[in-house]
Amino acid sequence: SSSSSSSRSLEEKEVVQRAMRSLMRKKSEEEEEKEGENVMTRLDEYARTLVEASSWSTGNKTEEEEEEDQDKGKVSSSSSLLATSFALDALVLSRLFTLMRKREPPGSETMGIARQIVNISFLGLDTRTLRIRDWPRGTAIFDVQPKACNEYLTPRMKLMNAKVTRGSSLRRVDFDFMNVERKSLDKKTYLEDALRKEGFREETPTIWICEDLEELIHSEATKMSDFVEEICDLMSRESECCGSAKGVDARLQNTIKALFAANGAMCSFTEEENGCVLFSAIKMRRSAREEEYYRNALMDALEEIDEDGWED
Q1: DSSP letters along the chain, please?
Q2: Residues forming a β-bridge with 242
Q3: Considering only 3-17, 27-41, 68-82, which range has the smallest mean pLDDT?
């Protein structure tokens, strides 16, 4: 009906507005530091263009955003929040190349998909996968954002001729952690289905990226424990989750470490000067699907032994 269509259109607009407000806050921060020479405090060209070309009315700020602006003065000006975003880029590339050294023989030629990146944007309008110029050949990049944000981004990035590096591929995945549907049989979401639809494979070494984890921590739509369990189920051994968060104290860090540990991943945190933290969690065991495969293979082998009369 027209009313339901109008309601859906309004919801999609609100999702993009929410993401645009986040970009505008970063743009405001950039302008405050425009006298500096540090390029690490600059929005990338794609994000800046989105903000400057936007004709959206960003609407009224939420209570959470008002509180964030009030607390902004408490954040050290010696290290920009934008710098944390670029520091996360560097961490991701460092861990990716470390993973490649572990899993790929030196001098081997890359054929097909050798590794994967899953970039999760909780708010949307994230341009990280395009601004990083160093994705190695054979990397499949899954950009997980709300559907409305992907639909907003795609034509605009096409106009800018924005592409990932040669030899890698970008697959946009529609998924909104802030407004999530759950499968009826368990607590799992449809993230696994959405990723597999675009060609994701659990057995392939993968780096997961989760910037602004505090958005999820304070969200009522997705519990942190469910999120960690779900991505760990999809992570193969030695795959890694890298991310950033602000306002995460030592107690909450220990809670997050315990959640990853319970799901077979070892997590560590690095404090930044501006009150943000970077974290990295390495998976120490196989993915859920790999475990199921080996378990079924073992059962089949045992059945063959019984049929061959080994019991006698």
Answers
A1: -HHHHHHHHHHHHHHHHHHHHHHHHHHHHHHHTTTS--GGGS--HHHHHHHHT------PPPHHHHHHHHHGGGS-TTS-HHHHHHHHHHHHHHHHHHHHHHHS-TTPPP-S--EEEEEE-SSS---HHHH---PPTTEEEEEEE-HHHHHHHHHHHHHTT--PPTT-EEEEEE--TTS--B-SSSS-BSHHHHHHHTT--TTS-EEEEE--THHHHT-SSS-HHHHHHHHHHHPPTT-EEEEEEES--HHHHHHHHHHHHHTTEEEEEEE-TTSEEEEEEEE-S--HHHHHHHHHHHHHHHHHHHHTTTT-
A2: 209, 280
A3: 68-82
Using an 8 Å Cβ cutoff, are 274 and 78 in contact?
A: yes
Only one residue has tokens 């675009």, namely: 198
pLDDT at 83: 82
Point out the least confidently predicted range of 74-88, 103-117, 143-157.
74-88
CB count in 10 Å sphere of residue 166: 7
Which residues fall within 8 angstroms of residue 185, CB to CB, at 6 or more apart? Answer: none
Q: Which two tokens stand for residue 108?
A: 């081997």
Alpha carbon distance 299, 184 (integer Å): 29
Burial label for 83, CB within 10 Å (0-12, 13-18, 19+), is: buried
Kindly report, residue by residue over 171-204, the tens digit of the pLDDT. Answer: 999 999 888 766 555 556 688 999 999 999 988 9
Q: Decide if pLDDT at 77 tops 60.
A: no
